[in-house]
Amino acid sequence: MTVKFLQRSIWQRIFGISATGKPRDESGWHYESGQLTIRLDRVPELTRSGMAVRFEGKSLPVRVLVVFGEDKQYKAFHNRCTHLGHRRLDYVPETETVQCCSVNKSTYKFHGDKIYGPAPGPIRTYPVEVGEGELRIRIS
Ligand code: FES
User: Which residues line ligand 1 at a C-beta cut-off of 6 Å?
Assistant: First the structure.
């Protein structure tokens, strides 16, 4: 299978600068009792297909990458490459892959399996429930 690489500068790769932003409105999400809840009216970035947003901080125990793919399906990932640098991941548009922001570009399919790079194993994925204008992601 052909792997598509995000176009990033060598400096962005060396310093591990993610291409994916945090939500513009941090009040649009919260974490409680093992569940990340995202209000789509406050995080409209995730209503346009082909977009991704990263969630981290507050009381969230892990970094989470949420993708709204071109197929209009939501996917959520533990945003931590399994290679030893444990850098963040970015969605690669028009593919069903996410890719490490580092120089080595480990790349994973939407179901979590690694398909490229030095990472030793798959990434964790989380189920996403959609309803009542919210995304609900169980972190376990
Ligand atoms: S940290 Fe992801 S490939 Fe090295």
Answer: 81, 83, 85-87, 100, 102, 104, 106, 117-119
CATH number of the structural domain spanning residue 133: 2.102.10.10
Does any domain span residue 112?
Answer: yes
C-alpha dihedral, 13 to 77 to 65 to 58, nearest 10°: -110
Give residue 41 CA to ligand 1 midpoint distance, Å: 33
pTM exceeds 0.85 for this model: yes
| 3 state SS of 81 | coil
Q: Is residue 4 part of a domain?
A: no
Interval 47-73: pLDDT, tens: 999 999 999 999 999 999 999 999 999
- Number of structural domains the chain divides into: 1
